[in-house]
Amino acid sequence: MADVLLRKVVKRYEEVEAVRGIDLDIADHEFVVLVGPSGCGKSTTLRMIAGLEDITGGDIMIGGDVVNDVPPKDRDIAMVFQNYALYPHMTVAENMSFGLRLKHYPKAEINSRVTEAARMLDITDLIDRKPKQLSGGQRQRVAMGRAIVRNPKVFLFDEPLSNLDAQLRVQMRIEIKKVHQKVRTTTVYVTHDQVEAMTLADRVVVMNRGRIEQIGTPNDLYHSPATRFVAGFIGSPAMNFLPCRLEDVGGKLNIRLTDRIAFPLPGARAARYQGVSRTDKLLLGVRPEHIAEARVHTEPGVEAFDAMLDVTEPMGMETLVYFTMDGTQVCGRVNPNAGAHDGAPFRLAVDLNNMHLLNEVTGVVI
Amino acid sequence: MADVAFQQGRVAGIGSKRKRSSLRAALKRKSAAAFLMTLPLILLISILVLYPAFYSLHLATLNKSMSRFVGLGNFEFLFKRETFWLVVRQSCIFAISAVIFKALIGFIVAHFVHNVPAKGQRKWRGMLLVPWVIPPAMSTLAWLWLFDPSYSAFNYTLSFFGIGPIAWTGDPDWARFSVILVNVWYGAPFFMIMYLASLKSVPEQLYEAAAIDGANWWQRIWYVTLPMMRNIIAITTLFSLIVTFANFDIVRILTAGGPLDHTHIFATWAFRVGIEGSDIPLGASVSLFMVPILAIAAIFILRDVNKRGNEA
Predict the structure, then answer these.
(1) Do A256 and A321 share a domain, yes or no?
(2) A178 and A257 housed in the same domain
(3) Which tens digits make up the pLDDT trace of B207-231?
(4) Fewest CB atoms within 10 A around its CB: which of A120, B2, B164, B282?
């Protein structure tokens, strides 16, 4: 068990700078997820922590020791790979015990650890099989078992679920969470799937183009994104961004979306955005769940408007509605019984209490 | 009458229709189509391999003038000859030691080439394949000059260290060493290229997993590389064992079996007795002797490959 610290870590491949000086503190027992689109440097960062990639600059510390030049085998870490990387010629038990056997642990100790891990992962029956005889989900369990028996300082997961089908992915996600609750080992988990990031993490690190965009709890990121990238990346369906500007009308602050549509801002929001230049190009960020069917009795800050729906997607417990506002496609989530139909007019309401205002040029949330 | 004729025509019509459709059905069956497609190869093999094989079996049962059937007489005669047992021993020593060194050198060189950056790798691969690409009859001539007792580059170089001159092809032990050396030089690139292909097919993540599991360089080779290459190693070794056992050109050119039959192997000795000694039935019996020895090796090696076939 240990904490992991990254200080100004840089990775350069000849011309390309994959990781551009990131700082990250991961506390003992913490489950941290690195998330971002492909090529954002998240896997490289993980591999640098593992020691599989040299670092070009900066320091990596595990449990207080600088490990920049320590080979992977001496870092006391365990890693679960995307394609599992099980040794095909070894049985499940041999795969799991390989690391311990190399370190010449006593046989009894190895056996008890393997049995314990197999029980925890529910693979006791598979212990004598070869990886070829296992399904994808079972292989994933074995790969995790191999990490658990080592009882390392840090677990590293490199997109462990992306080779599994959707149903199994949900199941394994829960499985991973359970394991972490039991063993409490510091975990760094890489994924490009924001749902995985949100559901698993104590803290999520959103990366983009080799830099950290934002670090925070899943709720922080969802409700208070710092940049347009984070706001757009976290949440599904993604947040809507509408070009807008602020204007003063009769001593009140309005947000104007189109020539015809403008809404007064609720009091708290108006106070917050008072200092924003009226000429700046801005974006209104609204999550789909904050655009719903209009109710008869509206709460303060919820503004109704009419829209012509392009497409509706009934999801069962909700219906997603898509409409166009000044050339921008907008998504809303309405009650399935509200009567939304393709190509029909529909009265919607936007909840401005949960809006975000972004600077269109810098992409920063104001 | 008309009725009968009509009936007959109808029956005939049905018959031919059924025949055509059954032919089509037969063609549709995968196994039948596969058999037809492999038929040319099967014919070629029967003409070029099976016929000569059976013919040599037949030859081996004839007397020297090929006029009388003598049964196993030729073999009885061979078993009493000391030279024959010398050839058996030498063939085994030659094939086994050459294959071991070819495999070892091929494995080591394959590792080096595998670790050469991708840019320069093609060049190295190409250069290292040269010994295998040159017809051995030609390259062995070059070796013959290198081994020349008085004017050779080897002895000249060794003379600076006060060693030699060594009778490379004149002394029985050195002659054996020389033919094995040339065979290893000629055959190692084949192992190299096979091992290289197999090395490249080992997923990089297995090495990474092993590195994290705490394996050092040697343990990674022992626990990851070798097990992953086992089938290729087995098949390559078997193949090379067969080819080396049946080698002819290198020994024939370098020593012609000498000195005093001390480098003869099955093929060269069969040639010596059969063609040069004009006893073709006896030569055929000698060459037939390779079959049981190789068959046993093949059974052992292939059985292991089959067993592991569905592992990876």
Answers:
(1) yes
(2) no
(3) 999 999 888 889 988 999 898 888 8
(4) B2
A73 and B213 within 8 Å at the Cβ level: the answer is yes
Contact A143, A85 (CB under 8 A): yes
- Asked if A293 and A335 touch (Cβ cutoff 8 Å), the reply is yes
Chain A residue with minimal CA distance to B312?
A: A88
Which is it for strands A77-80 and A240-249: parallel, antiparallel or unpaired? Answer: unpaired
Q: Are A146 and A179 in contact (CB under 8 A)?
A: no
Q: From the list A81, A89, A146, which residue is nearest B311 (CB)?
A: A89
Find the CATH number of the domain harbouring A320: 2.40.50.140
The C-alpha atoms of residue B109 and residue B189 are separated, in whole angstroms, by 9
Both A284 and A193 in one domain: the answer is no
The encoded tokens of residue B50 equal 């099976």
The per-residue pLDDT for range A96-148, each reduced to its tens digit, is 999 899 889 999 999 999 998 898 888 889 889 999 888 888 898 899 899 88
In a domain, A234, yes or no: no
Instruction: Assess whether A45 and A82 both reside in one domain.
Output: yes
- Summarised one tens digit per residue, pLDDT across range B37-94 is 899 999 998 899 888 888 888 888 887 777 777 778 788 888 888 888 888 888 888 8
The answer to whether residue A175 sits within a structural domain is: yes
Contact pairs from chain A to chain B, CB under 8 Å: 67
Nearest C-alpha of chain B: how many angstroms from A73? 4
DSSP element (H, E) containing A334: strand A328-334
Same domain, A40 and A170: yes
CB contact under 8 A, A72 and B212: yes
A254 & A338 share domain: yes
A342 and A213 in a common domain: no
Q: Residue A320 sits in which domain range?
A: 240-359
pLDDT tens string A159-205: 888 888 888 888 888 888 988 898 889 999 999 888 889 999 999 99
Q: What is the pTM of this model?
A: 0.77
Residue B215 is nearest to which of A51, A52, A102, comparing CB atoms? A102
Residue A123 lies in a domain: yes
Interface confidence, given as ipTM, is 0.81
CB contact under 8 A, A89 and B310: no
Which chain B residues are within 8 Å of A89, Cβ to Cβ? 227-228, 230, 308, 311-312
Of B214, B227, B228, the CB nearest to A99: B214
Q: How far apart are CA A273 and CA A255, in angstroms?
A: 10
Q: Which amino acid type is present at position B196?
A: L
Q: CA B303, CA B305: separation in Å to the nearest integer?
A: 5
**Contact status of A347 with chain B (Cβ, < 8 Å):** no
Q: Considering its fold, how many domains does chain A have in total?
A: 2
Within this chain, do residues A63 and A208 fall inside the same structural domain, yes or no?
yes
Domain termination site, one of A227, A254, A287: A227
**CB of A103 less than 8 A from some CB of B:** yes
Does residue A159 belong to any structural domain of this protein?
yes
A159 and A43 Cβ atoms separated by less than 8 Å:
yes
